[in-house]
Structures are given as structure tokens and as C-alpha cells.
């Protein structure tokens, strides 16, 4: 029996399917559409070699003849048709989901290699011919007149070459250019792998104004605090992005993790984050939550924090049966966006995530040119200030305020709600 298709497969055929029906799929960053910059960053030279051959029939220039797909179309074989089909379909799929660039990469290498091979063969032939330019070759040139008479002329190779001057120099330059591009491509691949794909996600690296290197270890410090200062059976509520990290490093139980198979449970956590503190406390009691962990990048300028993911929490919460009342329109300001300053809606300002993220933040100053409570990511000053938490208490805040952990008070120790 063949299992039915999942929402991810439907999203490949209809890119709007996940957003309209299963927002948790659309909320994953690797399921977002691919930006053009990603193609050039990940594929570099191959991004030019793959599509360039399609323009040959239009521009008619000799250089375009040698690019990969042209050769595959010129001499169609079973293997070539397979590569063409594979390339076009994977190119489409990679545009729908950025993660599928991995599927596109192999065929890009194949077609790029065919194109580069064609370029080198075309110009190396000219280099070899230049060694025998002193020899005279003849060819037949047939012309037809209005009376139907045909004449045959013999012309020398030297006369033919007048239509292609500097052939040896151009061939030498093109071979040298391809060699340089391949060297630069290799250097780019090594640099991209080293700087973008070799760092652990829990250790952040940044560069100062003078080029100095800074390592931000807030994630590990927070997880270590959880491991050392909480009970072994403590339950931590956070957004699902950090579930695997908390489980593996802090060795604590989480409500949701990166498996994301339980859409209802994730929606319940999103509902807790999007609701007021009073409503959230009841949900946390229902789920037996001991600690709440949020990621906040306002002080550091870290844009992948929970406030920037808040809209997806709201949408996922609203897609479940218990969260039908959660509407994202209640969180939008008059300008149609999520604002955290004085223009923030009461629903947003009273939400649990807002309160946990900006608790005591109005006391901080990121630099002398900015007022207290300035959020570097949103570019706004926090609008809702001087509030206290009733059902939770601050337990840990990392050095750069990136990770904030709150302890859920038992009912007997709660303040007046």
C-alpha cells in the first residue's frame, strides 16, 4: 500500500497550499521560496553555466553554442533527455523550497561540466589549428546564378582566415579565462563551506566594526544553566525550533521539537505564546510546564528571534481547533505590520511572548545614540513598559539577552491576576 502524499509534496505542486492549509509547513525557513541570491551564493559559476545555453538560438553567438544544455539538445540521447528533465524539474522544485537546492546541485554540476568541456574543446581546436596555418587547404565554394550556372572556386586557408582574425589570441584568452573562473569557483566553494556551512547553529559568530571576531555563546550557556539548575524531570516550553537542542544539550523534556509531526500540540504552544498571561498560565498548567524559554535578539540585533517568528505562531495557533479564536489581524497595527512600539495593538502588547521578550528591556541601552529600550532588529523603542509578571518569574537571561528563561510559579505562589 502506498502512503498518501503529505503536505510538503502538495506544496511543491502548489506553492500556496501550505500557507493556506498547513501553516506549520510554510513556517519552516528551509521551506521558504529560494531567493536569487541563494543561487549565486551556493552555485556561483554553475548558476551562469546552466541557463546560459538556452539563449543560444536567440543571440546566435559562437560562445553560447558551447554551454551545457545546448549540447544536450543538439545531440539528444536517452541519457541527455534524462539530464534535461532532471535539470528542469529540480530547478523548479528548488525555486519552491530553498532546501531543494541540494537536489539541484548534482545536475548543475553535470550540465556545467558539459558546458565547460564544450568551451574548452571549441577553443583548443583553434589553438591546434594555429600550428598549421602555413599549410594551404582548399575548399569548394558553390554559388548559383539566376541562369542556374554553377561555378567552383578554390580559395586558400589564409583567405578564409581573414573572416576570423586573431583566432589564436582569442582561443588562448578564452582557455585562460575558463581556467581562472574554475580556480575562483573552487576558492568560493571552500570559502562558503568554511564561513556559512561549518559553524554550529548554537554558537554564533559576528564581526566588529574594526574586523575583530566575536563568538556569542548564549545558547550553550542557557542550555547548561537548564541542565545544572533544573530538576531532571522539568518540562520546558519553547518554540519547536529549539526542541532538539534543549533535549540533547540540556537533557530536559520539551513540549514540541523539530519533528513537527504533532501540529495540534505545536498550535497549543503557539496559542500560549500569543495569548495574555492569564490565559497562557492556564494552558501551561494544562501542559505541566515548569519553564518557558524564549529567544530575543533586540539587544544583539539577532533577527531570527521569536518576535520575528511570532506571526507563524499566531497562524499555526489559529489553524487548530482550540485556537480558532486567535486571529492574526488582531496583532497587526494600523499600518498593517507587527509593531512593538507605542503603536503595538493591545492584543500584541499583552501577549505572553511580548512580555517575556521585553521584560526589563526598557532599562537597557544598546548604545549611547539610542534611547533605552531600543530594539535593534525592529528598529523601534519598546512601547509597553514598567509591567510585572504574575504567573512567571525571570530565572535566567544570557549575557547578550539572546536566551531568556522564566520559571512558572505554582498556583500558591502566584500574584494577583
From TrEMBL:
Which pathway does the record list? Protein modification; protein glycosylation
GO MF annotation list: dolichyl-diphosphooligosaccharide-protein glycotransferase activity; metal ion binding
Membrane topology note: Multi-pass membrane protein
Quote the subcellular location field of this record: Endoplasmic reticulum membrane
Please provide one cellular component term from the Gene Ontology annotations of this protein.
endoplasmic reticulum membrane
Determine if Transmembrane helix is one of this entry's keywords.
yes
**Catalytic activity field:** a di-trans,poly-cis-dolichyl diphosphooligosaccharide + L-asparaginyl-[protein] = N(4)-(oligosaccharide-(1->4)-N-acetyl-beta-D-glucosaminyl-(1->4)-N-acetyl-beta-D-glucosaminyl)-L-asparaginyl-[protein] + a di-trans,poly-cis-dolichyl diphosphate + H(+)
The record's annotation in Pfam families points to: STT3, STT3-PglB_core
Residues in a coiled coil are none
The chain positions of domain STT3/PglB/AglB core read: 235-292
Membrane-crossing residue ranges in chain numbering: 54-73, 80-98, 170-186
Family that this chain belongs to: Belongs to the STT3 family.
Subunit info here reads: Component of the oligosaccharyltransferase (OST) complex. There are 2 OST complexes, OST-A and OST-B, which contain STT3A or STT3B as catalytic subunit, respectively. OST-A and OST-B contain common core subunits RPN1, RPN2, OST48, OST4, DAD1 and TMEM258, and OST-A contains DC2/OSTC and KRTCAP2/KCP2 specific accessory subunits. OST-A complex assembly occurs through the formation of 3 subcomplexes. Subcomplex 1 contains RPN1 and TMEM258, subcomplex 2 contains the OST-A-specific subunits STT3A, DC2/OSTC, and KCP2 as well as the core subunit OST4, and subcomplex 3 contains RPN2, DAD1, and OST48.
Name-wise, this protein is Dolichyl-diphosphooligosaccharide--protein glycosyltransferase subunit STT3A
Which organism encodes this protein? Opisthorchis viverrini
